[in-house]
Amino acid sequence: MDRAFLRLRTDEAVVVTVLSTQGSVPRAAGTRMLVFAQGEHGTIGGGHLEFQALAHARQLLQGQTQQTQLRQVLGPSLGQCCGGAVALGFERVQAADEPRLRDLLKPQRTPLALFGGGHVGKALVNTLSPLPFAVLWIDSRDEIFPNDIDDDVVCEHSNPVHAAVADLAPGTRVLIMSFSHAEDLDIVVACLQRLREKDDLPFVGLIGSHTKWATFRHRLEERGFTAAEIARITCPIGVPGITGKEPEVIAVAVAAQLLQTL
Question: Among 11, 154, 184, 234, which residue's Cβ finds the most Cβ atoms within 10 Å?
Answer without folding.
Answer: 184
